[in-house]
Amino acid sequence: MLDQKTLDQLWNFGDPAASEARFRAAMVEEMYDVDEQAELATQLGRAIGLQGRFEEADALLDGIDDDEPTVGVRILLERGRVLNAGGRAAMAVPLLEQAAELADHLGEEFLAVDALHMLSIADAGNAEVWMRSGLEYASSAHDERTKRWMIALHAGLGSFLRGKNRLTEAMVEFQLAEQWAERLGTERQKALARDAITECGKALAEGP
């Protein structure tokens, strides 16, 4: 199967159309076996979904004929992502729960945390629970790429807590996001974490 770093090199989340083209090109290369091509197809479905072509993405994911378990996790995850983006969050939640459970069973740490992160978005009523579950899982991950989820999860939890006016707790999360960004993140992640701390600090100084 493909490791996440290989898929990262094909992705440009700021340009899903370019990502679509890359995945289409990769899928016809002879260097990938059948299971790997199926895995690439799940990412093609995601790129199509990011462009708002939800029915096309869902049909593509539905048509992937591969019984490799990791591919199965990715199909569940991407179908959940497409449903959520298309305004059908309630339908996405059970698929994402299945993805998280199966990924955990398979030892696919990155995918398990990805699914938990998506659940925090799709299942808004339990967002804090899912984010804390994701943090707990990512903190014990063996893979550095998986640990990078700590940045997004701490930042997301900080934003959630700030929205609830739990500013002191939010500041702690933003500071943790910055620490992880300094350790493993991109320059953009570092800058965003510093900005979040600054803005939360201003809110704290203003008081209730």
Provide an overview of this structure.
With 208 residues, this protein is mainly α. 79% of the residues lie in helices and 0% in strands. The protein is built from 12 helices and no strands. It has helices spanning 4-10, 16-27, 34-50, 54-62, 69-85, 89-106, 109-122, 127-139, 144-147, 149-163, 167-184, 187-206. Helix 2 packs antiparallel against helix 3, helix 3 packs antiparallel against helix 4 (54-62) and helix 3 (34-50) runs parallel beside helix 5. The longest helix has 20 residues, at 187-206. It is globular, with a radius of gyration of 18 Å. The protein starts with a helix and ends with a helix. The mean pLDDT is 95.
Features:
mainly alpha
**Approximately how much beta-strand content do the residues carry?**
under 5%
Assign a percent range to the helix content. over 70%
Structural class by secondary-structure content: mainly alpha
Shape: globular
Beta strand count = 0
How confident is the prediction overall: mean pLDDT?
Answer: 95
List unreliable stretches of 5+ residues. Answer: none
Biggest pleated-sheet summary: none
User: Which H/E pattern describes the elements?
Assistant: HHHHHHHHHHHH
Number of helices: 12
| First-to-last CA distance | 52 Å
What is the CA-atom radius of gyration, in angstroms? 18 Å
Topology of this protein?
Layout: H1 4-10, H2 16-27, H3 34-50, H4 54-62, H5 69-85, H6 89-106, H7 109-122, H8 127-139, H9 144-147, H10 149-163, H11 167-184, H12 187-206
Helix pairs in contact: 2-3, 3-4, 3-5, 4-5, 5-6, 5-7, 6-7, 7-8, 8-10, 10-11, 10-12, 11-12
